[in-house]
Amino acid sequence: MSYQEILYHADSRIATITLNRPDKLNAWTAVMEKEVRQAMYEAESDEAVRVIILTGAGRGFCAGADMSLLSGIAQQGLAQTDGHALRNSANGAERANVRPDFQMKYTYFPSLRKPVIAAVNGHAVGLGFILSLYCDLRFASDAARFGTAFARRGLIAEYGLAWLLPRLIGPANALDMLLSARIVEAQEALRMGLVNRVIPQESFMEGVRAYASELANNVSPRSMRVIKSQIYNAMFQTLGEAFEASEDEMIQSLQSEDFKEGVAHFLEKRAPAFNGR
Q: Contact 145/125 with Cβ under 8 angstroms?
């Protein structure tokens, strides 16, 4: 599949999706939104891919929504067509066995059956910040910067951010970032739990790919798929419900081919050959 505003590359069991408007710091457009979603589904359906990386070309990850859209709305008001574009959109058919919460604009990342790593190479601001949060893991270069921007534009916590951000960094840190809209540097983001790790810029993508390769080659794809689903579904469950769901999943895992391979490769002291079943 060909794309206009992103790059897609898959090799060594890793799919890399790169936002590709470097002259605009990868500012988000309607075209980019559609293409990222298509690329995510392409990677998900490719049996050779086990891990997905989302990053940006050039100096930025994503500088937020393209200002031409916001400038037009500010000057001329919100037309009906603009309002529709800003609202949630499934952008395609409903996904089977996926809760409605994970079928809206940007919230579909948790429904993907493979782990998604945000490789934040530079500024992730506004909508770019939200995009990174919907990924499962966030790795930042030491040049990365994070900011919400919304309060400084007369806007609010968009696209479920008020639900998502406090769960990642706690209500106090979330309120700080949202109310002040200040820029947070990589090391502070690490301290507040916003990112999983910080990697020097000169070796950034090598470090991200090394982690992704560890998942792709040494971990059961079936286990990753089920664990990811457990984590996100548990956000809506009681402890008892999560416990019962895990018992059902355990019974199924004990009957899986990946479980048999997991025991066999350990006992035989060799590299695993998981097939995801």
A: yes
